[in-house]
Design a protein that fits this description.
The complex is a heterodimer of chains A (394) and B (371). Chain A has helices spanning 2-13, 83-93, 110-115, 118-126, 144-149, 158-165, 176-183, 231-241, 305-333, 340-347, 349-355, 359-365; strands at residues 28-38, 44-51, 73-80, 97-99, 105-109, 135-140, 191-199, 210-221, 224-229, 248-252, 260-277, 280-295, 367-378. With 394 residues, chain A is α/β, with parallel strands linked by helices. In chain A, strand 10 and strand 11 form a beta hairpin. In chain A, helix 8 packs across helix 9 (305-333) and helix 10 packs across helix 11 (349-355). The longest helix of chain A is centred in the last third of the chain and has 29 residues, at 305-333. Chain B has helices at residues 9-25, 29-36, 40-64, 70-78, 80-113, 119-136, 138-162, 181-194, 200-203, 213-244, 250-256, 268-298, 304-317, 324-332, 334-370, and strands at 259-260, 264-265. The chains are: A alpha/beta (394), B mainly alpha (371).
């Protein structure tokens, strides 16, 4: 028995050398961003943004020749019949094993998005290496690959920059999970953040001339891009999704409409209530919140309650118009990114059973009313305009 | 009567808790959600009633034959020949279950943890580990289960906290909108999994006689049912029922979502280790059950040598499924529910009937004797 135990232990010691399928980190090509474009000669072009392991800082030397500045990434692109074939072609050109374990961002160009993203989503969800937490966004007005060819600002890798600039816009961030859940839902439509490339004046030598900025949102129906929201409209979408925190709203001053004032949202709540009117559904959207005034060049004294009320009214009117406008856009494009259908399913389950198979038509004909009640709680550290003296000529 | 190890009530519960849910937890939420939609947790609870029924019947049978192990119970209830035949079915059922659990384990490990490592190698390694557990005996395995139980409970507490930000009530549909039909349809593939609690025919005879086996068995199996329903609920809250129904390993996809401030990420391996520990309990218990049954059927002095043979058979049987998809299809199929559920039902009905008849006859004999 003792001999058998010793023999067993010796056999187990053979396993200490490591696992069968181990791959050393310096044998890995770690993909951190991926761009998917419509190809010129083939249906799809895949561009991978691969971080060089152990060379993230991109300093002198690195793993290249001494004295030669090694770039921290390798950007490689292939066109093919489909995504898997393109990935295989890249693998065949890569001296290291391509891995998607650290994929942070997937970019899709506008043209490909209009043709359909089903193949892309299937690939990203099916692949055991990729994660559902990968950020996914569309690129407006440029090829997605161009974004990965652009130098990042401040961050070492473009994937980091892309992942970091979007939280600044406020509101929810779309990842593969949210897009797929909405895509297969009967009650939601998927949407994604949209980015674009802009050329700026070079302020200092070495600064990239092109930079990536947030552009708005892309709305999808049955896996195809059907409408786009600009930044202002996308912020209205955030209100509907209930995530407008730190959003900045600018509205015309009540007494000087040529001037605008701005507030920052510090607290908010949005309720979407479906009600039945005969055999039709209507939605009442109630937006409440507290704001902090960040800018007011107009002359009125915000400390006066009538003035505060007038400013709040202007603010509420402006936001209500914006939300109403974006809902009209949703209905025109037959999309439901804010989940109005889900509200009906939850709030009016009996009615939902009668309309769920023709929800798109029902949604397009639904009446939506918007009621905004934002309060201006603070006016910064001022109670009166700092630069205006009554009686002094302008 | 054979000299045996004794396990406490707590140990029994700790063995049954991972036994009743760890093998199913990884992929069974998918077929349940496919059928039942947002009512999937209700389906799991409903299926759990079958497990509870098995607990009550199997414990009752085992208690009616004090001093007997599983095969002894069969022989006493049904006579030597029919009892041995039923015992053989019982042994074969757990040998088969052992191979299925091992295959579940090695498929997951081969797909997620060690891609590229041949399944046979993983099967042999896990086979050796379970064999070691069986050789050590039931009590050490039960003691290890105590610790495994702590980790499983900790994981069950931690998972919802870590994925809380992913919850969306708007991904959840109102309950029972489609009536009870889909709930029953969703419960069906789970039922036979919980009926594996028939393992109590092996465990109760080893239990300390002073303890109440009903209470601890119900805690173990009921806890497993609740844990599975709870994880199904969390998965549906995170992914919605449609996506949950399309994953191969929904709960693994769930723990992959854990991300705290982009800092605490990729901790699924820790949770997977907890799952593997639970699977170790289940596979070891299956091997122990069939080894002990083989020992009694063959009249051997020890269960160790039959365990060696049965472990080898089990490892070989893991390879009969040429594709993972075949195994998944089988695990979710009606045939699985009918065959596994049917075998357990036949064993329990025969044993219960035999025990009842024997009790009645004995009662009559005692009545005559008193008269």
């Amino acid at each position: 028995m003792r001999r058998l135990s010793v023999l067993l232990l010796l056999c187990l010691a053979l396993l200490l050398g490591g696992c069968w399928s181990r791959v050393e980190v310096n044998d890995l090509a770690i993909v951190v961003a991926m761009a998917l474009d419509k190809g010129d000669e083939n249906p799809v072009r895949v561009t991978l943004y691969i971080a060089r392991a152990g060379n993230g800082g991109g300093g002198e030397g690195g793993q290249g020749r001494p004295g030669v500045k090694a770039t921290p990434v390798w950007v490689v692109s292939r066109e093919s019949e489909n995504l898997s074939d393109a990935m295989r072609e890249i693998s065949q050109a890569s001296p290291r094993r391509i891995t998607l374990h650290h994929l942070r961002v997937a970019l899709i160009d506008e043209e490909l998005a209009r043709e359909g993203i089903d193949d892309v989503l299937d690939f990203l969800v099916r692949n055991p290496e990729a994660r559902l937490t990968t950020r996914i966004m569309t690129v407006k007005g440029a090829r997605a690959a161009e974004v990965l060819q652009t130098d990042p600002l401040l961050e070492g890798l473009m994937s980091e920059q892309l992942a970091e600039i979007l939280p600044a816009k406020g509101g929810p961030l779309q990842r593969v999970k949210e897009v797929v859940v909405a895509h297969i839902s009967k009650t939601h439509s998927p949407w994604m953040e949209e980015i674009r490339l802009v050329t700026r004046e070079v302020m200092r030598e070495g600064t990239p001339a092109r930079e990536v900025v947030y552009a708005g949102a892309a709305l999808f129906r049955r896996g195809k891009l059907v409408a786009q929201l600009d930044q202002k409209e996308a912020r209205a979408l955030n209100w509907l999704l209930g995530h407008p925190m730190h959003a900045v709203i600018s509205a015309p001053c009540p007494e000087e409409p040529e001037q605008t004032f701005s507030v920052e949202v510090v607290q908010s709540a949005t309720k979407i209530k479906p009600t039945l009117r005969g055999n039709r559904v209507a939605f009442r959207i109630e937006v409440e919140g507290q704001t902090d005034m960040t800018r007011k060049p107009c002359k009125a004294r915000i400390i006066d309650s009538e003035v505060t009320a007038a400013y709040e009214q202007a603010l509420n009117r402006d936001l209500a118009e914006r939300i109403t406008g974006v809902i009209a856009k949703f209905q025109a494009a037959d999309v439901d990114p804010a989940g109005f259908g889900k509200r009906v399913e939850v709030g009016l389950p009996g009615f939902w059973q009668t309309v769920h198979d023709r929800w798109p038509q029902v949604w397009q004909e639904s009446e939506v009313s918007v009621h905004v009640d934002l309060k201006i709680s603070f006016a910064g550290v001022l109670i009166q305009p700092p630069l205006y003296l009554p009686g002094k000529p302008d | 009567m054979i000299a045996r190890v004794r396990i406490s009530g707590g140990m029994l519960a700790c063995l049954l808790f991972p036994f009743s849910h760890t093998a199913a937890v990884l992929f069974m939420p998918a077929p349940v959600a496919q059928h039942a939609g947002a009512d999937a947790p209700l389906s799991v609870l409903l299926a759990g009633l079958a497990g509870i029924a098995v607990v009550l019947v199997a414990t009752w049978i085992a208690r009616r034959h004090p001093g007997q192990l599983a095969i002894g119970i069969c022989r006493r209830a049904l006579g030597r020949w029919l009892g041995s035949a039923v015992g053989l079915i019982y042994m074969a059922f757990f040998a088969w279950l052992y191979s299925l659990v091992m295959r579940d384990l090695l498929d997951f490990v081969a797909i997620v943890l060690l891609p590229g490592t041949p399944g046979r190698v993983i099967a042999v390694i896990f086979g050796l580990v379970t064999l070691y557990g069986v050789w050590a005996g039931l009590e050490p395995v039960a003691r290890i289960s105590y610790q495994v139980m702590l980790f499983i409970v900790a994981a069950l507490v931690v998972i919802p906290v870590l994925v809380f930000r992913e919850f969306s009530l708007l991904q959840y549909s109102p309950l029972l909108t489609q009536g009870l039909g889909p709930v029953l349809k969703g419960a069906w593939p789970m039922t036979s999994w919980f009926m594996e609690a028939v393992v109590l025919l092996t465990l109760v005879p080893h239990m300390n006689q002073k303890r109440n086996p009903y209470r601890w068995a119900l805690i173990g199996v009921g806890g497993g049912v609740v844990a599975l329903a709870y994880l199904t609920l969390i998965t549906v809250l995170v992914f919605g029922h449609t996506l949950t129904g399309r994953f191969m390993f929904p709960v693994y996809s769930l723990v992959q979502m854990i991300s705290l401030a982009h800092f605490v990420e990729r901790i699924e391996m820790v949770l997977i280790l907890v799952w593997i520990s639970g699977m170790f309990t289940k596979s070891t218990l299956c091997l122990y059950t069939c080894a002990e049954a083989a020992q009694q059927l063959l009249g051997l002095k020890t269960h160790r040598w039959p365990a060696l043979v049965l472990a080898a058979v089990g490892v070989v049987l893991t390879q009969i499924w040429s594709r993972t998809l075949d195994l998944l299809r089988w695990g979710m199929s009606d045939a699985h529910s009918w065959i596994h559920g049917g075998i357990v039902l036949v064993i329990l009905v025969l044993l219960a009937a035999g025990t009842l008849v024997r009790s009645l006859l004995r009662g009559k004999e005692q009545g005559h004797a008193q008269a």
